[in-house]
Amino acid sequence: MFILEVNPLVLPDIGLVFWNTIAFVVLLVVLGKFAWKPMLKAISERENGIEEALLQADKMKAEIATMQSENEALLAKAREERATLIKEAKEASDKMVAEAKEKAKSEYDKILADAQLAITQQKNAALTDVKNQVGTLVIEVAEKVLRKELSNKADQESYIKQLADGVKLN
Amino acid sequence: MSFLRIKTLLVAGFSLLAVLSVTKSFANETAMDSAKKEKEFNVTETILEHIKDDHSWHLWGDKSIHLPVILKTSKGVEVFSSAKLVDEHHEPIVYKGNFDYKLIEGKLKIVNEQGTIDEVANKQLLDISITKNVASLFVSVFIILVVFLTAASAYKKTGVTSAPKGLQSFMEPIVLFVRDDLAIPNIGKKKYAKFMPFLLTVFFLILTNNFLGLIPFFPGGANVSGNIAFTMMLAVCVFIVVNLSANKNYWEHIFWMPGMHWSMKLFLAPIELIGVFTKPISLMIRLFANITAGHILVLSLICIIFIFKTIFASAIAVPFAVFIGVIECLVAFLQAYIFTMLTAMYIGMANEEHHHDHAHEAHH
Amino acid sequence: MVGSIAAIGAGLAAIGAGIGIGQIGKGAVEGISRQPEAANDIRSSMIVAAAFVEAVALFAVVVALLGNGG
Q1: Structural domain boundaries of chain B?
Q2: Mean of the pLDDT values across residues B105-125?
Q3: Which of residues 132-151 of B touch A (CB under 8 A)?
Q4: Coil, strand or helix: which one is B34?
Q5: Among A91, A160, B224, C31, which residue has the least CB neighbours within 10 Å?
Q6: Is the predicted ipTM greater than 0.90, yes or no?
Q7: How far is CA A51 from CA A39, A46, A47, A61, B176, in A?
């Protein structure tokens, strides 16, 4: 009794079920083959493309970054090299200057020493010479004095005095 | 100021027109009613008539398309126009084909000479007529085919790298929505691709029919997605897809729930087995009842005008009907969304890999 | 008579569903206000839960229709 009173709204009509099934199957097959497949494929392809592009961009970025860091490293290295070169050059020049100075000084010292030596030698020679001459003079004077002494005693004495005054060893 | 004046004029003009036409139709009605001894206005009958299927598709006034009737009886297949089933006043008459056919409460039945239903002959009657719902379904199928074949051909034409244009750009986000919000979260990234065509077809078929049903005049006006035959067919398809794709793990969870005492397992098995059937049945009833309820609501509000038999009732009825109509637009989308999402969820449950035990442990 | 009783039954079911959907909405709004960043997840689960609750009310309507033959 209860079932007989069922509202026609909740009773599926067999003809409708039939046509609905046909429509749905047709839609599923046709769309599945000609619409969903190309659409989904295209969408996923595009997504893959975008993803790949992004990955590539990231890779490029990383590459650029490494290149930059490499460049920087190179630059730093070059700078360092330059600095060392300059330093070395400076050192070398300093060394050369110092050496030259040293050499000049030693030369100068040597020359000075030589000069002093020569001066001393000459002085000694001169002194010796003076001594010799003084000796000779003394002897001459003594000779003269001795000769004079024999003639005049007073004169002799003054003369000796005169001579003695005259002979002053420097 | 001039705008206000034009508006007032327009309002006045429309009210005049409305009042005139209504009085005219009332005049006609009263003339007819006096002839027919005051036929009472029955709300339930009127609403059900609008919601039910029909053999002709009403256009306007007394113009309607008479759809073909296709019958398979014990005497073979028979095709004739439904115009032969009604007289010029749209009253059902007997058509004499292989049997005597008559429309009884909108349904075609075989009648005998006395004009009563021949139960024995009706058992063999298979009515696969192109009714209003079927015709509307064909319209929706046609729309879907045109829209998506055009959209899909755009991919071939412009290639995949260029940005989508026109129809393609309108449909692609919806397709992506079905994929990213319905399929992938519920089925999983590994297996979703296989079910995408089914989910997309279900989604767009429901969506198109929901919206076509909301249009009150010719290309719409039918109640396809609010018809239990339509939802039943979809539910059966979901049932088939879910259970055919189900893996061993799923059946194990139904018949012999792991991690339970054996008595509990025996107790759970019938419940789970019933669950296999109630899932698609709930899908069927949800869609059917939601859409039908929406149609009944709008029609009831419009019927207020005819119950009170005054044009002024429309001041309340029409804004409410518009409001409900807007909500129905949301419901039309929401129901397609929920149907597809639950389908995806059931498919996902049937295809779950064997990591359930870990999930159980994680919950405790 | 059957129709009236069916209408009462449908009305009772509507009360239950109304309370249920109200609870769902309340929970969702509270959840969203507490965690606005999870709004999208909460919204979709809310819709699904509401659909389940609503389905119960609609089952009642269908049962009412079953007993209320045309």
Answers
A1: 68-129, 133-360
A2: 75
A3: 133-134, 137-138, 141, 144-145, 148-149, 151
A4: helix
A5: A91
A6: no
A7: 18, 8, 6, 15, 16
